[in-house]
Amino acid sequence: MSFKLTILGCHSATPRSLAHTTSQYLEMNNDCFLIDCGEGTQRQLRKYKIKFSKIKHVFISHLHGDHFFGLIGLISTFNLLNRNTELHIYGPKGIKEIILLQLKLSNSWVEYPLHFHELVASQSEIILDNDKVQVHTIPLQHRIYTNGFLFKEKNRPRKLNMSSIDNYPEIDICDYQNLKDGKDFICQDGSIILNKELTYDPPRALSYAYCSDTEYTESIVPLIKETDLLYHESTFLEEHHQLALKTKHSTAKQAGTIARKSNVKKLLLGHYSSRYKSLELFLQEAHQVFEPVELAEAGKEITVTR
Amino acid sequence: MSFKLTILGCHSATPRSLAHTTSQYLEMNNDCFLIDCGEGTQRQLRKYKIKFSKIKHVFISHLHGDHFFGLIGLISTFNLLNRNTELHIYGPKGIKEIILLQLKLSNSWVEYPLHFHELVASQSEIILDNDKVQVHTIPLQHRIYTNGFLFKEKNRPRKLNMSSIDNYPEIDICDYQNLKDGKDFICQDGSIILNKELTYDPPRALSYAYCSDTEYTESIVPLIKETDLLYHESTFLEEHHQLALKTKHSTAKQAGTIARKSNVKKLLLGHYSSRYKSLELFLQEAHQVFEPVELAEAGKEITVTR
C-alpha cells in the first residue's frame, strides 16, 4: 500500500512563465484523482506524461479561477480524444452550470458519461467510497465556499496468525473471513477466543489531506489528525500576516502549526504568492514550528509508503 | 503606417506541449488588439513580453474552446493586476453570459469597465471605428456562428502639392484642410481647380484579414479583396479534403485559392490539425495556387509596411 502525488502547479493567482496555478494528480490504490485544475493543467498533464484516460475523478476545491479555469478545456479535450469512460466532477454548487453552459454555446456536448457531484455541505461528508478508497470533504474557511479533500485508503483485512490458529482445531477455513474482518471466534462450548489472539493488525491505511485555500482554522485538525501527508496552503509569509487575514489565506508558519497540532507525518507547502522571489523562506518559516516539511514544486513526485 | 502581427498560438483543437491554440496580437496605429484567446494565451503574452495593459479590445471569432477558453483567465488576471482602463470584448452572443457567470460564482467582479459587444449579424458589419482604424466582421461558414475580422487602417488625408498650390495666390492656408479632405478649389470667378492638381495621393491604408475557422467559401472574397495580409485557416491538407468538408474547415490549397481570388498581398496559414508531423506540406500545397505564403508559428512576428 502506497500512494503517489504529482504536483502539476502550486502557485496562486495567475499562471506565469514559471508558475503554474494549482493542480495535483494523486494515484492511490489504482484510483487516479485530479485535484483542482487551474488554466493550463492539461498541458502539465502531458508534460509529466500522465495518461488522460486514467483520470476518473476530478475534485475542485472552490470556484476561484486559479483552481478551475482549466477544467472546461480538460473536459473538452477528453471528448476530442474519444473518451468513453465516465468522468466524475466534485465541486461547489454552480460548477455544473458553468461547464454545461460552455458546452451548450460551443455546441460541443461530450460523448462520454459526465457526472457532477455538487457540494453544498458545511460539515465534512464522504463524497466517494469504493472498495479501496474513501474521500471526505474538509470544510475550509476562504472568501468563497471551499472544501479541502481527505483521501483515505480503506483498512485492509486483518492478517491471520496461522501458528495460533493451528492450536484450535475447531477453527475451520470457512471461519477465516470472519477472523479477517475482526470478529472473535465463538467455540461450540460458548467460550470465546479473542480476535487479537488469532490475527495480526493489517498494514496501516494511508491518507492524504489536501487543504487549499483557507485562512488558519483549527476546525480542520480533528479531520486531518495523523494524516501521512498534508498539503496546506501557505500563500504568504508571516511578514504579510495581515494580508493573509484579509484575503483568508494562511502563512507558512500557520501551515506548520496546523501540521503540528494534527500530528501529521509530513507537511507539503504550496499556493505561493508571486511576491516572493525565493521559496526557501517558506520552508524556514514552517520549520520553526514543524520539522518534516517539503515545498511543492511543479513536477515534484511524492511517494508515501508504509 | 505599418502594422505588426504576433502569433501566440496557431494549432487547432487542444493545447499540447509544443502546440498552442489560437490567439494573435495585432498592433495597428497604436491600437492593440487580441484576436481569439485559446487556453494559455496569457502565458504566451508573457512569454513574448506583450504588455497586458496595452490590450483594449479582444475579438473572439467563435465559441469553440480552442478560440476562447483562455478569455476568462485573462479577464481575471487583468483584475488582479489592478487594471483600470476599459476592456472591450467582441464575440458571438452568449460570451457575456459565460464570462459573467464565472465572475459571479467566483465572487470576483472585475473593477475595470468591461464592455461586451455581442455579435449576431450574418452580414459584415463595422464593429469598431475610431480615428485611425476600422474593424469589420467577416461572416464565416463553420459548425457554429463564426466571424473573421478585417482590420483596416483609415485613409490618411491627401498630401498638399505645395509647388502647385503656390501657383494660385487665391488659395489660402485656411483652405488647406478642404484640399487634404479631397475637395476641389472653387475660385472667386467660379472656375474650379481640381483637387488632384493640388494634392498627392496619401499613403495607401493597410489592412489585415483574419479568417478562422471556416469551410471554403468564396463569399468572403469581396470583403478581403486586395488585403495586405490574409490569415486563412488551413486545418487540413487536400488528402483530408473530405474531413475538411465534414468538419467545416479548409485545406491549405483552399486557403491558397481564396488568397488568389482575393488578390491579397500575402497569405498566412494556420490552425493546423495535430495529425500532421510536418507543417512544410501546408506551405507546398498552398504554393500550388498562390505564391506569397507563410506559415504561422507561435512567436512569429510579421510586420507589414507600405
Automatic annotation (TrEMBL), chains A, B:
Protein's organism: Lutimonas vermicola
Catalytic machinery residues: D66
Name of this chain's protein: Ribonuclease Z
Subunit structure: Homodimer.
UniProtKB keywords: Endonuclease, Hydrolase, Metal-binding, Nuclease, tRNA processing, Zinc
Source organism superkingdom: Bacteria
Catalytic activity, reaction form: Endonucleolytic cleavage of RNA, removing extra 3' nucleotides from tRNA precursor, generating 3' termini of tRNAs. A 3'-hydroxy group is left at the tRNA terminus and a 5'-phosphoryl group is left at the trailer molecule
Main function: Zinc phosphodiesterase, which displays some tRNA 3'-processing endonuclease activity. Probably involved in tRNA maturation, by removing a 3'-trailer from precursor tRNA.
Comment on bound cofactor: Binds 2 Zn(2+) ions.
SUPFAM superfamilies with a match to the protein in the record: Metallo-hydrolase/oxidoreductase
E.C. designation(s): 3.1.26.11
Record: residues binding Zn(2+) 2: D66, H67, D213, H271
Binding site for Zn(2+) 1: H62, H64, H142, D213
Molecular function per GO: 3'-tRNA processing endoribonuclease activity
Family of this protein: Belongs to the RNase Z family.
A family per Pfam: Anti-Pycsar_Apyc1
Top EC group: hydrolase
Cofactor(s) of this protein: Zn(2+)
